[in-house]
Amino acid sequence: MPKPKSPHEQQREAKRTQRLENYHQVYGLRKEGHTIKDIAHHLGMGKRTVYTYLSHESFPEWQPSSRQYGSGLDPYKPYLIEQWQQGKRHAKRLFEEIFSAGFTGSYAMVARYLQPLRQSDPPMRPAPELLNCLPGRGPAPKVKSANQKPLSARRVEWLILQHPETLEDEQAQLLEKLAAQPDLSEPISLAQGFLKLVRQRLPEQLEDCLKKAMNASTKAFRSFAKGLIDDYDAVKAGVTLEVSNGQVEGQNNRLKMLKRQMFGRAGLDLLAKRFILS
User: Fold this and answer.
1) Which of 5, 75, 204, 259 is 20 to 30 A away from residue 151, measured at CA?
2) Residues 115-124: contacts with CB within 8 Å, 24+ apart?
């Protein structure tokens, strides 16, 4: 009993069948006297593909590419790893060192390669065979990048917005390290202050939070504070009173969404019916 074909094999055979049909159609239309441009337009393919089919007397089977891609930085990666592990982590200086040794790439290429190392904690330790210096001092095997993904702005935002008691130990330690950074300590502190103010309803801290935000070095916080001050009475009521118009605003947003979804699709009768049923 023949072995059933995998989905990948079935898909590959389907593509070959389609290409074979296109090949015969190209030759058939060409024999009828149609131009290359007309054939490409009629079959929905590029003129280069039509030329390729016509240049082969028999159906050209797809050949996997044997081309191997590499980076001009590959010979210098072991040296960068070694310098990184020795504490030399100034990307610009490392770029200048390998540039003087013959590297022809850009600084951005070096910075992109070092970024995963900068995000890894603890730093990645190279295997003994990687500890070769500049090219010419020994073979340069391929270097694997750190497995840990770079820390994105969205992940940092998620960490800040979480309740502290819900964070795992590793997440809490990461947030603590971020808060210790000079460029991030103020924004994280202000964000956590506003979160505490809203979640615990502490209207007596509103003035202090607004004052700190207005004097912040980050422009976004100054703009945020200015917007709150412009609507101070509503903001003060929001963190003081138990009642809220959140339900009303939620219903308004839902109805507006339904209206946008139905725009241009049907009349008012159907729109009204959907409002009622939803």
Assistant:
1) 75
2) 115/150, 116/145, 116/146, 116/148, 116/150, 117/81, 117/84, 117/145, 117/146, 118/89, 119/146, 119/148, 119/149, 119/150, 119/151, 120/146, 120/148, 121/148, 121/177, 123/84, 123/85, 124/81
**Structure tokens, 90:** 């100034």
Question: For 200, what's the count of Cα atoms within 13 Å in the CB-facing half-sphere?
Answer: 11
Question: What is the band of 117 on the pLDDT scale with cuts at 50, 70, 90?
Answer: confident
Output the CA angle 62-63-68, nearest 5 degrees.
Answer: 140
The SS3 call for residue 28 is helix
| Burial of 115 per CB tally in 10 Å (0-12, 13-18, 19+) | middle
Tokens of 73: 């930085």
pLDDT in tens, 155-182: 888 889 988 888 888 888 888 988 888 8
How far apart CA 159 and CA 170 sit, in angstroms, is: 11
Unique residue bearing structure tokens 């009642």? 243
Per-residue pLDDT band at 235 (split at 50, 70, 90): confident
